[in-house]
Amino acid sequence: RRRHTRLQGDWSSDVCSSDLAVEIKPDDHKAWNNRGNALYNLGRYEDVIASFDKAVEIKPDDHKAWNNRGNALGKLGRYEDAIASYDKAVEIKPDYHDAWYRRGVALGNLGRYEEAITSYDKALQLNPSKPNTYYNLACCYGLQGNVELAIENLQRAISLRSEEHTSELQS
Q1: What's the predicted TM-score (pTM) here?
Q2: Closest by alpha carbon to 77, among 109, 43, 115, 36?
Q3: E strand segments, the chain
Q4: b/e map of 26-52 (b: 16 or more CB within 10 Å)?
Q5: pLDDT at residue 2, as a whole number
Q6: How does the average pLDDT of the chain come out, rounded?
Q7: How far apart are CA 149 and CA 166, in angstroms?
Q8: What is the Cα–Cα distance from 57 to 28, expressed in whole angstroms?
Q9: Contact at 8 Å (CB) between 58 and 78?
Q10: How many helices and strands, by DSSP H and E, does the chain display?
Q11: Contacts of 135 (CB under 8 A, 6+ apart)
Q12: What is the pLDDT averaged over residues 27-53?
């Protein structure tokens, strides 16, 4: 998979465009989401949170805005707040894999490994083909001293990652 990168100036122009959009239509939650996403790519996480706060004020059932708000909070190390945002995202959309996964990351960062494992298990029920989820699950088990489950999940992560690379080479 080829990843596209953008120059920082491109993200800045996205922020300018989003600023103009919210100035013209301040009640457009999509404009606030776009602004939050552009700011995220610039690492301006406090501004990101403010943008997603505005987006969910306008459209409280926007699960992606809640999830993205959690991502910015996590970048600032505000894991409890991030978990609250992820909880809101999965309350709105219980089958939202990314929120369950990110919730697990935040819980793991707080050393709450049992809860993190529960979140990763839910994420894997929804999408069992994500190697990072198995890797993080392996880390949680390893940190709990459960070597057998750590190795089992690490092997799954490696296997899935190998399959991804083989597919990339064949395409």
Answers
A1: 0.84
A2: 109
A3: none
A4: eebbbbbbbbbbbbbbeebbebbbbbb
A5: 33
A6: 87
A7: 26
A8: 11
A9: no
A10: 9, 0
A11: 153, 154, 157
A12: 90
Q: By the 8 A CB rule, do 66 and 56 touch?
A: yes
For 143, the token pair is 């940190």
Question: 138 and 125 in contact (C-beta within 8 Å)?
Answer: no
Residue 162 structure tokens: 């190998």
d(CA 32, CA 29): 5
Please name the residue that has the structure tokens 């894999």: 97
Q: CA 35 to CA 51: how far, in whole Å? A: 7
Report the pLDDT value the prediction gives residue 3, as an integer from 0 to 100.
37
Q: Give yes or no for residue 163 having a pLDDT over 90.
A: no
The top-scoring range by mean pLDDT among 7-21, 64-78, 152-166 is: 64-78
Residue 171 has a CB neighbour count (10 Å cut-off) of 6
Task: Pick the range with the lowest mean pLDDT from 23-37, 52-66, 124-138.
Answer: 23-37
Task: In whole angstroms, give the CA distance from residue 161 to residue 7.
Answer: 28
48 has a pLDDT exceeding 90: yes
171/166 Cα distance (integer angstroms): 9
